[in-house]
Fold this protein.
Amino acid sequence: MPWLAHAKRKAGLAMNSRLVIADAAETKLCAWLSVSTFAGLLAYALLGWTWLDPVAGFVIAGFAIMEGKEAWEGELVCDDDDDD
C-alpha cells in the first residue's frame, strides 16, 4: 500500500488532479492503519500488551490530523489557477 500511495500521488501530480492526490493521502493513512492493527494484534498475542492498541490509535489519529491539516491548507493539492 505505501507503494500504491506513492504511485497515486505521482500520477495525481502528473495529471494535476486534486482528487487523485487526496486519494493517495487516504491510501497512505490506510496503510498505517493496517500496520498498527497488525502490530497491536501481534503484541497482544505474543506479549499480552493490551495497552499498545490505544497508543497506536493515538499515533494514527495524530497522523490523520496532520494529513487533514495539510489538505485543509491546500498543501496536498495542485494549484488550478494555471489553466489560463
About this structure: The CA atoms of residues 5 and 28 lie 5 Å apart. The helical segments are 2-15, 18-47, 52-73. The chain has a mean pLDDT of 81.
